[in-house]
Write a structure and sequence with these properties.
266 residues, alpha/beta, Rossmann fold, Helicase, Ruva Protein, domain 3, 2 domains, two-stranded antiparallel ribbon, elongated, binds S-adenosylmethionine
Length: 266
Amino acid sequence: MPPADKHRARKRFGQNFLHDANIIERIIQSLDIKKEDSLVEIGPGHGALTDIIVEQCRHLDVIEIDRDLAAEFQWRYSDKDNFILHNTDVLKFDFAANLSTESKYKLIGNLPYNISTPLLFHLFKCKSLFSEMVFMLQLEVVDRICATPGSKNYGRLSIMSQYHCNAAKLFKVPASAFNPQPKVESAIVRLVPLESPEYEAQNSQLLETVVRTAFSQRRKTIQNSLKSLLDKSLLEQVGIDGYRRPETMSLREYVSISNALAQVES
Ligand code: SAM
């Protein structure tokens, strides 16, 4: 049965649908899809990206939370045998259980902005399943992902994204490319998961705790903001001046703190 033909964009699902053919083409080209690729798309919506990529790849899994949009796909794509729809919340989706480990997947999505940070952390946990991810996100989030120490956007998201992936901002997308138009600016980011991080944390959960704790007190010195986790002598031990601010410290320095702390705790 065909779905109802008038779907109203749902704010709670961050629904801003792309309609600009040039932008759609540029996003898809950013992923460099090959015939033999397996792809995952998060939030296909009405299929602005999906209708094109499904024809270009060996296999496509899509994850869509909206029941009406999912029904639209089940009906429109009923003749496609390279397509699987998961009508669920991507934050609860178990990628490792649902995807094959035979080859890596390429991941694409014009993501719902209200869940972008938790979603990125959810994906970092299973990053080994993916060779590459191309996402549309709020411009400010892309700037935070790619920020370097000392800049105002630098923080937990920058450090953990750059720990797990090589990150590159590709291009901005104007609000006029969407319907309805979002109130925020958007940009495309490419994330390439690293097989082994440049500076390896002995315990990546501990690294995350150190970074989260440091930035929960952004204006304090690093020795004050990390007081609940460690003694300032540990900072001295790894050669870090305890009077520095959390936003001046590099990923390598956070990894060295986390590894020294792991030694103390073991
Ligand atoms: N890809 C389409 C496009 O570019 O026009 C739609 C993009 S729209 C910004 C975000 C999409 O993600 C919507 O289809 C929305 O229903 C879906 N979505 C929102 N929250 C979700 C979640 N937690 N899990 C899975 N899909 C979600």
